[in-house]
Amino acid sequence: MHEETGGARTLVHRSATPCSLRQVLGLHRRGGGDPTYRVDGAGRHWRGIRTPEGPATLALEPRAGGTEVRAAAWGPGADWVLGSVPDLLGASDDWSGFEPRHPVLADALRRHPHLRLGRTGLLLEALVPAVIEQKVTGQEAFAGFRMLVRRFGEPAPGPGPALDLWVQPTPERLRAVPSWEWLRMHVDPARSRVVVTAARVADTLERLVALAPRRPSGGSAPCPGSGCGPVPRCASGPSATPTRSPSATTTSPRTSGGR
Q1: How high is the pLDDT of residue 234?
Q2: What was the pLDDT predicted at 46?
Q3: Helices within 26-137 (DSSP H only)
Q4: Is there a smaller number of Cβ atoms within 10 Å at the N or the C end of the chain?
Q5: Structure pTM?
């Protein structure tokens, strides 16, 4: 149930197993200076999020040894983002059918039995930094993303300005960024074209992400982790690893020059 507390909408998410916010949410952080992500001295994780209903500030605070997470949200997208908290924390994951054959995967699952793969349901939010991070060092990619958000995004609502917390630009702002501004942000034309093209069809992309996943009848099965696409039988051998798409909202591939 959502409640009003000091102008914020709040809820408490409970789970049977502990949830590490740093491990789960860290996948969505673009370097230590990411303006859309903050961790305060009390251990609360803050995110500036652009939802289909508008910008929102989300604060997540672990309790009861990690089996409870208190969520608070501000802004026009507060209700939407609170509704996304269970998926964001990996509550929809189902590892029951995952039986790793490769010893490395089996050992990883043994050492991390409560691993969660969260899902935001916001494709463009994941796609924009993923494109910027291609073919450059992590340092250059994170700097480009910071400049993009600060120049063309907006401060997150509620306590966002006090935290210097920002929200990514709207698709309309992305489409209007001049070519020379992309170059000033060290984003070459090949990558900026992909971002602008995605922004032009952002509504369609987000509608596709919102479609309920269906289990294929041709022998494929969804891989563990909410938001995953199907994994063909031919890719399920000992050397295969689960593959996740941008719609699963994990972090993009990064180079070793990152954080």
Answers
A1: 33
A2: 97
A3: 78-83, 85-88, 103-111, 123-132
A4: N
A5: 0.76
